[in-house]
Every structure is written in C-alpha cells, then in structure tokens.
Amino acid sequence: MSKQTQDLLSALGVPSSAYTGGSLIVRSPIDGAQIGAVPEASAADMTAAIARAQAAFLQWRTVPAPKRGELVRLFGEELRAHKMDLARLVSLEAGKVTSEGEGEVQEMIDICDFAVGLSRQLHGLTIASERPGHRMMEQYLPLGVVGIISAFNFPVAVWAWNSALALVCGDPCVWKPSEKTPLTALATQALFDKALARYQAAGHAAPDHLSQLLIGGAAVGEALVDDARVALVSATGSTRMGRAVGPRVAARFGRCLLELGGNNAIIVTPSADLDLAVRGILFGAYGTAGQRCTTTRRLIAHETIHDELVARLDRARAQLKIGSPIEAGNLIGPLIDQGAFDAMQKALAAAREQGGEVSGGGRALAEQYPEAWYAVPALVRMPAQTEIVKHETFAPILYTLKYKSLGEAIALQNEVPQGLSSAIFTNDIREAELFVSASGSDCGIANVNIGTSGAEIGGAFGGEKETGGGRESGSDAWKAYMRRTTNTVNYSRELPLAQGVKFDV
Ligand code: NAD
C-alpha cells in the first residue's frame, strides 16, 4: 500500500485498523495499485447503527436548529483545515485531476456554510385562517434518521450535500458509500468525529451517533433501505440502483430522494458564440473523464454550423492531455476501473453498428499503467438519435447530432429517458427563453451559455424522469429533510367549524 495514501489517511485522523486487513480491496484507478483492505460491515451492523441513530434523533431533535448549525460550522472548519489532504485522497481513490479533487472538497465547505445560514431560516408560513380568533401556521420539524447511499464519482461531496442539511434539520445520518471509494469516506467521517468532539467539549449537549459510516456491499445497503426507522433514504447512483431502491422504500411508505443517471445535451444554435460553446462542450463532455452525472453526452447543433463546430471540437479533443490526475497539466484522468472501460468499448461498438463515425475512444497509457484504465476521449458523429445515444454510458463519449428547427432540437434533447442537465448556446433571446420555458428543456437543470456540468450549491440539484425526481443542495431542498406540520390555534372563546359546518347539540 502506498506510503502517500497512508500518510494522508493518518493526517486526516484515520487509524490504520480501518483500512488494513479487511476484505474490501481498494485500488487506485491511477495505477491499479492496492491502497487499502477495508473491513466491511454486515447487515446486522447496519441494523444496530440505525438503532443508535434513532436514539440520537430523540435527543438531537430537541436541540435548537441554530445550535445544530454550530456543529456544521465546526465541521466546515475541519474541512477547511484539511482541504488539500482530503482533495488529494479523492484524486488517489477516485482518479480526479487535482483541481477537481479540490473543487469537490470546496463544495463540501460551501454546503456547510449554506447549512449554517439555513439553521436560522428553517421557516414555515403563517396562513390566514377563515375563522375569527384563529391563527394557522406551518412548521418544519426534524424528520428522523437519514440514510445516505453515495456513488463513486462524487465520493464525499454528495454525502456532505445530504448530511450538512440533515444535521441542521435535526436528523442523524447513516452513510453507505460506494464500495469503490471507502477511504475518502473513512477520512470524511474522521473529520466529522473531530468536529463533534470539539462541539461536545465546548459544552454543547449532543449525542454521539449523529453520523455513522458503514462500508459494505448490496446487503448492507439493503438493510438501510428496508429499515422502517430510516425516515429518508437519499440515494445517488445509477438508474439501475434507483429502480432497486425506490420501490423498496415506497413499499414501507418511507421517503426517498433519488439522484440517478443523466444523459445531458447541449444545443448550439446558429447565433451562438462558438468559442464559448467549444469550451463549454469540451469541459462538459471530457472533464472528470466523462464520469459526472452532469457530463455532456450529446451535442445537438444546427445543420449550418454542425460540421465546423464538430471539426473544432474533434481537434481540441485530440489535444486533451491524458495522464495521472495528480501530475500538473493533465486534464483527463483514468476511468474508475476495467468495467467502466469495457462498457465504453461496448457503447462505441454499438454506436458504430448504429451508423456512428467514431473518433478516439481507445485505451491510453496501457504500457505505463498496465493495471489502470485510461481512455482516449471519444467523439461520435451520429446519423440519428439511436438507442445507444439514449443510454447513459459513464465514460467520455460525446455523440453529435444535427437539427434544422429549434423545435426539433428541443424534441431530440427531451427524447431520452433521463432528465438531469441541459444547456443551450445562443445569442438569440427568443431561443434562450423558449429553452427554459414550459415548452423547452424537460430537465431539472437548464442553462444558457454555460455547459451542463459544474452546478453551484446554491441551486436545487436534481432531475426528472429516470434521474429520479429528487432535489438536493440549495434553494428549498432542505424541506425534504423535515416533516411539515400544519397547526391551527384557537385563541377565541368560540369553536367555529371550518366551511361554516354546524354541529350544535
Ligand atoms: P451505482 O448505482 O453502481 O452505485 C451507487 C451506490 O448504490 C453505491 O453505494 C452502491 O453500493 C449502492 N447500491 C447499488 N445497488 C444497491 C442496492 N440494491 N441497494 C442499496 N444500495 C445499492 O453507481 P456508481 O457507478 O457508483 O455511480 C455512477 C452513477 O451515479 C451514474 O449513473 C451517475 O449518473 C450517477 N450519479 C448521479 C448523481 C446525481 O446527482 N444525479 C450524482 C453522481 C452520480
């Protein structure tokens, strides 16, 4: 196991017993080297952890929300102090280039700041009552235990989006991270434990089990999903996972927040600033080696500019520097594992069969890193939006399509089963407004003159259709982590019934 990983984990406060001698072998996608052997939890461990979380909930829900915010503020301080170490660990374990690893931790810090402010603004409405001497209001109250299932590609930020809000809302969290990225999860949990210890040492009454981490496979995840004490299951990952998790939570009338796959498109119209569009598409399609839920997977360009735009993109694509994500200058890191590379090759073969003309897409750096899976980003000129184009392949493949009318472009954009992110590049205000209108993009995110990826935490994040319908992060996404009660208070000496109903004896 690499000394660098060990040093980082130690600096982040993770004891070596947490990542040595266990059954879950962790490999760095950078070179395929083993960087951990993590002990795994069982389904019974998960059930016991949920019981501890439920006990913690009974206490935490009585702590005033601004005081709960103080814990999240301290956690944000720990993240600031350890930003570079945690970011480097994200690069080593998930293969993100340095600035994207740092960006991921910055996102955690930002959501903590957001949640601290929110802890003084968890407000409901006062509503005019139709009855004299009555007041009607709604309150948002703590919901209960929140279960968090996260994906490999945002191994720590997605947990922070959920937990920072859940904690200020009064909900303890139980986290099952991706089995591909347990080390970053261990480090994040260690930083949280440190913040909690500081909070308790400062005299705040807080239970111990406000955040628990359980590493394991599907059985551990299923124990979380099926437990009626888990009031909200927030699950981020593939649509396949959402299809398994959603109905199970629904069967017990639990609440589910699903953040699933995307198949995001950019429309480029004749009036667009092509320089801007090229930059937006390149980062969107190939940044993070195509492994973002918001990655641009489809380009829909007007027939008068398609060929020129695609030729420019193809030239720029061929120049993107592929290599170790922790070496300066490289923009494209590795795919997470061989499975991801094989899925990419399968998709490219299908695209060829369906009439696509493929540039790039092969294996890169195989001699230097025989145990790792670097891919040359691919661009595929498609004759039509065939089946493979409608499918999310989690790899750097950009399909290009032509359109004649904007109506046709929007129809193509909306024709896929996923509905996460979308964008239009145009300098025509009518086109821009139509795109973000009710007759425009059907996605949860619709942008103008910026790409599909790289959302800010201030907005609500999520998408429609097979993306799952959940919203996380900013705006009023916090409401998913609370239960709403409507209260009517009678301060008169009468008891008038609503709607004028009489019931006098
Ligand atoms: P994945 O679906 O393979 O795994 C995600 C998580 O679900 C893991 O923790 C996994 O252990 C767990 N899981 C899988 N099956 C389960 C089950 N039956 N019960 C309980 N838990 C289960 O996804 P991945 O490969 O880690 O991530 C890539 C996918 O995630 C892509 O489809 C991507 O679009 C999506 N994603 C979506 C968002 C979003 O916000 N919409 C964000 C990041 C990633």
UniProtKB/TrEMBL annotation:
Q: Where is the Aldehyde dehydrogenase domain?
A: 24-485
Q: Name one Pfam family in it.
A: Aldedh
Indicate yes or no for the key word Secreted.
no
**Highest rank taxon of the organism:** Bacteria
Q: Which CDD domains match?
A: ALDH_F7_AASADH (cd07130)
User: Which Gene Ontology MF annotations are present?
Assistant: aldehyde dehydrogenase (NAD+) activity
Query: Where are the catalytic residues?
Result: E259
Q: What EC number(s) does the entry state? A: 1.2.1.3
| Keywords noted in UniProt | NAD, Oxidoreductase
**Classification via InterPro entries:** Ald_DH/histidinol_DH, Ald_DH_C, Ald_DH_CS_GLU, Ald_DH_N, Aldehyde_DH_dom, ALDH7A1-like
Q: How does it assemble?
A: Homotetramer.
Give the matching PANTHER family. Answer: ALPHA-AMINOADIPIC SEMIALDEHYDE DEHYDROGENASE
Q: Which family does it belong to?
A: Belongs to the aldehyde dehydrogenase family.
What is the protein named?
Answer: aldehyde dehydrogenase (NAD(+))
